[in-house]
Amino acid sequence: MNHKTYTPQDGITHLPQTLREFGERQNRLNFELQKENASLSGQVEVLASQMGEALERIAALEAALNEANQRITELESEQALNIKRFHRCAEDLDKAEKETERLKLTAKLNSNAIDRLMKE
What we know:
The protein has about 120 residues and is an all-alpha fold. The protein has 1 helix and no strands.
């Protein structure tokens, strides 16, 4: 890109000298702005690349999060089923304990009755 916007011209008054100085300052300014623009364009490219990589990582993390949420839902359902099973087992255990206590009492009463009959 051409950064020079002024080319000096000869003349008989001070105006050409003033214009030449102005043109040279403008050319320097244009050159510096062109360098700055090129530098910023490079930075934009680097940032765009980094942004693309970050978006890819975010997409991967979202996919992993969705999988984790699905697994959590499955585990919660399984846990609810296990709780129901545990309650059923606890109820059966309570029934078995009551039956055992009843049998112990019956056995004790029978043995006491037998002991009384033996004494008579």
